[in-house]
């Protein structure tokens, strides 16, 4: 069984490096949860501060990444409970009036995807981001979400089906305008 660290003056250099290495993944997950890069940065900062303060409770031999994502997720939902009086824009209607659509088609595809992703129920969006974008296993995602593995699998499946429906995707031919350009190793695309 993994052992907890004895109290000391602070995290060691390895933990500091590991925390820094997880920042991009934490930020991406935070953006997927709250949809606002500025709020996401604040959420990541608070997550790191909480992890730093509670590093003695981290169990060596377990997944630091899952521990950090759990802290981030719990912090997000704590903030959400505190701010229930904020205007909810579940359908993205208000946000769509505030955003200037990009002029290039791939950017439009990405904007459509982001809008559809934001329309997913929070539990499905969270599961899809953890599995599809953050690279967690179903078991790790279940631990982060505090539910059964089968529940995570079901949420991911429903999220994928709903995204396909909202984006009008019926087959692989519906993705993009064609194959990506190829390049020799080391050459830019």
Question: What's this, in brief?
Answer:
This protein is mainly alpha-helical and 189 residues long. The protein is built from 8 helices and no strands.
Structural commentary:
This protein is mostly helical and 189 residues long. The chain has 8 helices and no strands. The protein has helices at 13-34, 37-53, 64-82, 93-98, 105-119, 122-133, 138-145, 149-167. The longest helix is centred in the first third of the chain and has 22 residues, at 13-34. The protein is globular. It starts with 12 loop residues before the first helix and ends in a 22-residue tail after the last helix. Mean pLDDT is 80; it is low at 177-189.
Task: Give the SSE map.
Elements: H1 13-34, H2 37-53, H3 64-82, H4 93-98, H5 105-119, H6 122-133, H7 138-145, H8 149-167
What proportion of the residues form beta strands (DSSP E)? under 5%
What's the N-to-C terminus distance? 48 Å
Q: What structural class is derived from the secondary structure elements?
A: mainly alpha
The number of E-state strands comes to 0
Write the H/E string, N to C.
Answer: HHHHHHHH
Task: Give a short account of the largest sheet.
Answer: none
**What would you report as the Rg, rounded to the nearest angstrom?**
19 Å
Oligomer: single chain
């Amino acid at each position: 069984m993994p052992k907890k660290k004895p109290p000391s003056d602070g995290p060691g250099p390895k933990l500091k490096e590991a925390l820094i290495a997880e920042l991009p993944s934490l930020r991406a997950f935070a953006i997927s949860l709250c949809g606002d890069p500025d709020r996401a940065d604040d959420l990541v900062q608070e997550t790191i501060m909480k992890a730093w303060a509670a590093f003695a409770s981290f169990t060596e031999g377990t997944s630091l990444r899952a521990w950090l994502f759990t802290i981030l997720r719990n912090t997000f939902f704590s903030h959400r409970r505190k701010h229930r009086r904020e205007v909810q824009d579940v359908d993205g209607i208000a946000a769509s009036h505030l955003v200037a659509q990009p002029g290039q088609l791939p950017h439009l595809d990405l904007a459509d995807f982001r809008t559809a992703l934001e329309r997913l129920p929070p539990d499905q969006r969270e599961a899809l981001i953890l599995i599809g974008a953050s690279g967690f296993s179903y078991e790790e995602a279940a631990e982060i979400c505090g539910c059964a593995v089968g529940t995570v699998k079901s949420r991911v499946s429903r999220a994928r089906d709903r995204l396909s429906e909202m984006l009008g995707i019926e087959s692989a031919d519906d993705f993009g305008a064609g194959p990506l350009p190829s390049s020799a190793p080391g050459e830019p695309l």
